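Hey, resending since the last one bounced:
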Amino acid sequence: MDTQKKTDAPAGSAQGGIRVRFSIGAKLVAIITILLLLSLGAITVLVSVLVSGDVQLTAEDNNFSVNRRSAAEAEIILTMIRSNALVLLETLSASGESGSVADLFFQRNHDIAAIILARSPTPDVLLNDQFFLANEADPALALSFIEAQADALDRCRRGDVVLLNAAPVFEVPVLVLLYPWQNEGREEAAAIFFSSESLTGIFGAGANQSFLINDEGDLLVHADADLVRAGANLGDTPFIRSMWEGEQSLQTLYTAPDGKSYFGAYSKLSFANAAVVTNIEYNLVFEGTIATTRRNLFLTGAVLFVSILFIWFFSKSISVPLKNLSAAAGRIKGGEFEIDLRAKSHDEIGVLTESFVEMGRGLAERERLKDTFGRFINETIAEQALKGELTLGGETKQVTVFFSDIRSFTAISEKLEPHEVVEFLNEYMTLMVDCVDRTGGVVDKFIGDAVMAVWGAPVSGGSPAQDALNCVHAALAMRLALIEFNQSRGGDKRPIIKIGCGINSGDVVAGQIGSTKRMEYTVIGDAVNLASRTESLNKPFGTDILITENTWKLVGSRLITKEMPPVQVKGKEKPIRLFAVINTIEEDAPGPKTLAELRKLLGIVPPDLSKVNLNAEEKKYKL
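The structure tokens again:
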């Protein structure tokens, strides 16, 4: 009586007299909480650490790429301006005539405002009137600007190329390129005034900001035109100072005077003592990563709270189904396979319940399936039969049929004990069947030492041509396997094995034949008979693989073959064409390339076809 009361005790307090220290609900809440914290925490760490590292590398590479591209384009523009000006000066020096030549030059070089030769006592001045008119600038500013650059002119006469910012004087973006110029053996300075708008265009404005400076720290080109017109100088910036003391190009992280951190890249130009600097703000690079991390933290808290509530109530629906499953397991253990159990939910427990029912049905059906599986010798055929995909009574299919036979098998068997014959055949058949399986074929039957296989039934490899090609590949694989197999053989007890293979493609009737107690899946038809007869012709032809014209039409273009003399087959009105398979056409395919090489490899003596008597006993063939 007391025992019965203990057994019926509520599950929440005790079961079978043993109190539950930790309920299923509490365990699930604890497990899910730990998993959520670990998984979401790991995601947060990965985003904040690993992703941040990837983002930084990407940002640095992109910033450096933008810098190098901007520097290359700036150098091209500056070089082009200098080259064009040199051409003009050389032309003027040679011709002595300046008016029309200079006018034509400025018409084609709108960005160049003026060219001044700073010679003593009077400088030569070439002006682009259209430039000054369009920008409402005084042409006299050019000469006054040059006269105020005594130090720069001295540097230029000593051989330096100098780039200056004239925007504060002209109030429009104008740069001055000073470079040495020889006049009658004296070093002078040539000054080119040109618009910097083309340079501003290649630098652009965006996340990656590029600007051009000279070795004095003067800001020459910047997306903010007001800074250029104001004549801003960045020479006191630590990053700029270290740049001129450092390498030709570099990428680094630095802190600007405004307190912000930047990824900075610079590339020094090959002339004019100028450099292109490209920056991207550190916080801008990691803005997305920081926002994602923040959202992950909020998501972690929300998911954890909802999960705890859901799991606590969900655990209440687990106890009863688990008891039913426990009882069902005991019934199955006792041999009662047909259990009456229904799933009341669509979660894992429901799936497990259905699995128990299916398991019982499967165990009950196991004995019946044993007989079915015993009727088949091929796994593919058995699976097709279980799925109901084999047509009872047969169906017409286009297949490729294969026959192989061991040469002089009777003579070999006479020198071996019965168990040795079986062991030898098992070892040989294992190699051959493996070649069939690897190429998608089905072993139809073993006829003594012969093997019959089919490609295209019950399942095709895609097309009749593909089935035929797979069959030929299997035969070539058998050739290689047999060569390796024979390397360790020799003598009466381990004779060298030679085989012949016959392959034919055509329509057959494929289906199950036999009795209700014993049946097999096979193929029947003229294509099968022709494949068998083709195999027997290998010996008189001195070959190891023969294919009929039917197969050759499907795959001949992909093989190296040698046509044999036509053969008159009994039952055929016309002689059949046969082809010896030598190899595939791939250049890297190992093996022979000619029939002579093949016969030498296999140790086959070339026959005299004029004296060959094909199957003298049955007289089925005639050359």
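The chain has 22 helices and 22 strands.

Sorry for the duplicate.
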